[in-house]
Amino acid sequence: MLRSSAPCLLAAALATVLAVPAPALAYWQWRDANGHMVYSDVPLSTAAARVLRAPGRPAGDFQPVQSAQPADAAGAAPAPAKASARPAAPTPEEAFQKRREASLKAAAEEARRETEAAERAARCAQLRNYATGLQQGMRAAVAGPDGSLQHLNSEQRQAELLRTSANLEKHCN
Which of 34, 44, 57, 140 has the smallest number of CB atoms closer than 10 Å to its CB? Predict the structure, then answer.
């Protein structure tokens, strides 16, 4: 009975190993200043001696590569390596904050666009209703110079309808 279950166990173990995607294994692991274990997809920018696991390297203490510059003939220490022109990689917290700020900014922009679209739709609906009323002969009035209402005659109604139609074409199509 053991011989018949061995291939099944082997197949199950192989399926488990193959089910883990390679990117899931690409993470950094280190201990922070308080001794807590930290896992991240972004490398630690300071104190590389505390890194326990790095992508593409076996698990265990991670030691940064030392420069292999020989001492000169006089026995002086090797010259320090020049600082690279690249800025230091952001810490995981900085990377998270940057992604969070970008997400919040995008959400605020989307909300602003939605609000503008809703306001525009409401204004267009009002213009369409007004134009329909003018076409159907609805009694309309405009404020005069002294603030009193002056009812539109047929010529004024036609001019108001043309102006409303122009606004509809310009802003609502």
Answer: 34
Does the pTM of the predicted model rise above 0.70?
no
Is residue 58 in a domain? no
Whole-angstrom distance, CA of residue 141 vs CA of residue 139: 7
Provide the domain count of the chain. 1
CB atoms within 10 A of CB 51: 19
Q: Is residue 142 part of a domain?
A: yes
Q: How far apart are CA 172 and CA 165, in angstroms?
A: 10
Tokens of 55: 């992508």
State the residue range of the domain holding 124.
114-173
CA dist., res. 161 & res. 129, Å (int): 11
The three-point CA angle 167-139-125 to 5° equals 35
